[in-house]
Every structure is written in structure tokens, then in C-alpha cells.
Amino acid sequence: MLFRSTGRIIGAEALIRWQHPGHGLVSPAEFIPLAEETGLILPLGAWVLQTACNQLATWSRQPAAAHLTLAVNVSARQFSQPNLVAEILALLDHTGAPPTRLKLELTESLLLENAEEIIAKMTALKARGVGFSLDDFGTGYSSLSYLKRLPLDQLKIDQSFVRCVLTDANDAAIARTIVA
Hints:
The chain is an alpha/beta fold. The protein is built from 8 helices and 8 strands, in the order ββββααβααβαβαβαα. The protein has helices at residues 28-38, 41-60, 76-79, 84-95, 115-127, 144-149, 159-162, 169-179, and strands at residues 2-3, 9-14, 18-20, 24-26, 69-73, 102-107, 131-137, 154-157. Helix 2 (41-60) runs parallel beside helix 4 and helix 4 (84-95) runs parallel beside helix 5. It is globular and about 50 Å long.
């Protein structure tokens, strides 16, 4: 769940887990790379987006939950699909999910290939109200020139820079610089 400083719940992040019948709970760190490698990330990602939009539509009909946002991680492979924008917009229309309550979380690796196309897709979705978050900032490309051009609502600094921010002067300086 995501909270305001007042303690009010403002949203959630969809986190996929795999309950394997023989191995129990399998970490996403184990199965997501395999899904990426085999191409199964595309149907898996589509299912996650469908499920998230259905949940947002349900929340939108409940006064106590209508304000909640739902963040969904989208893989670079999924985001590079040529029809992604049309699919997401059709999914929002079909489910009745409010676009302003959907936040797509992307990673910096997405910008390594065809950044102009990625920015165009983000801009098209943003025009319909979809929000964006850049996850794990500082672990990959980290180009401030691209960062300036992205229609972001949120920047998540990678935990490697904030884990020791209170005890490591270098981590504190990096975090302060990114925030500034």
C-alpha cells in the first residue's frame, strides 16, 4: 500500500508472485528473467494490466476506494511492443478503469533502445491521464537529459542509494542531488 504522510492510503502497487505447487512461493527475481527470456513476459504483462484495470474499475465504484491509484511494473519488452498504447487505451475503455488512477512503472533500461519512441508512447498515454514512475533510478542509464523529457509523476531512487542514507555521507549526497 502507498500512504500519505498523514497515514491515509493513496494507492497500491501490483506485485506478482508465483505460488508453485511443488516449490512454494517463487520470488519474482527468479521467474521474471525467465519470463523475459522466453517471451512469456508479454502474456504475463498483459494479464497483470488486465487484472489491474479490472481492480481500478471495481475501486472506482466504491466511494471509499475511488481515489486509489494502482502502480503496475511494465517490462521494457512489453513497452516496446508497437501496439502497446492502443492496447492499454482499449483496456482502459473496456474495463472502465479511470486512466488517472493507473501508474505504469518503468525502469531505466527501457531508455537504452529507441528513447524517442518510448517518450512518444509515454506522452500519448499521459495525454489520456495515465501516470508514470521511473523505478530503481540510478542503476542503469541515468541520463538526466532523458529524465528531463520524460512525462514522469514519480522517480524512485534505487535502494542501493537510500539504504544507508542516514549513515553513509556518499549515499546521502547522491540522494540529495537526485532529489534536487
